[in-house]
Amino acid sequence: MSGLSDFFLKTLQEAASPSVCWRGFLRKDISCLDHFNGRLVLRNAPVLTMERIGRGVHRPWKLGLQTTSKNDAIDYSKCIFKSLYCQLETKTYCKSVDLNVTSPERELLAYEIDQTFGFDLIPPVVARDVDGLGNGAIMAWVNKPLAIDWIHSGKYDYRQDKGNPWLHLLVAFDFMTGQLDRHACNFIIDENGRVYAIDNGYSFVRDDDRRFLKCNVAKHLLGCDVHPFVARFIKSLDPEKVVPIMKNRGFENGEIEGVQKRINDLKKVRKWIPLGGRWFAEQHRK
Q1: What is the percent of the chain where pLDDT is above 70?
Q2: Taking the C-alpha atoms of 249, 255, 258 and 263 in order, what is their torsion angle to the nearest 10 degrees?
Q3: Which pTM value belongs to this model?
Q4: Cβ neighbour number for residue 21 with a 10 Å cutoff
Q5: Engineered SS bond to 192: which of 29, 97, 216, 219, CB 3.0-4.6 Å?
Q6: How is the chain split into domains, by residue range?
């Protein structure tokens, strides 16, 4: 166990506040992924098949890998690949980010930050040169339903699950990283409410540009207390840790300072309030 999972377990054992709803938390799975072995598979397993999928701007590839590695959540025989050479972008994205840093590079940075701080939201991601497709980012395949699929099935609606710490954690991560496009088709939820954040290429805005930040989960948590476990985790975040990671990825237009500013703003939040961006502002106006 590592990162957030360790933090949650320690908090569960040590905290004594009677106001904490342990039962609401305990029904959530806090298992973490085997990132080390997962990355080895993604880097080295031979590619057997390639299939273009999705209807989004980037149109990623679904690759079939020659491996039998899998666990309850991840099937490493499948993965998602985004090429550096697929760079058609939306107008909103072009207004908000430095286009010299590509979407796959942002996927890799989001994963590095996820691992550095211990969020454990993002499945394993690596850089890889795929014959016929070029360089890009590969993400492990999560064999669980999208949030939108849960809603359509009628079995679970994340919009009503305001006590799920993973959802609170996703909102914090998306605000911190300047996410521009988090909606119910780009995060995954398992049977226990555990969240997996996929499709992180629309992130890390220039400076602290919050005009177009978007996380649909946040709309439904507006006015709610930040989950106590997540609030304590946020307090532990060190803004200086982002500096070497982001410099290594070539960010030079205020992105580093923007992330640091948003981390410091998160530390002050007790209830989810409008912090800028469309996800809070639209709901606030209704």
Answers
A1: 81
A2: -10
A3: 0.86
A4: 10
A5: 29
A6: 3-285
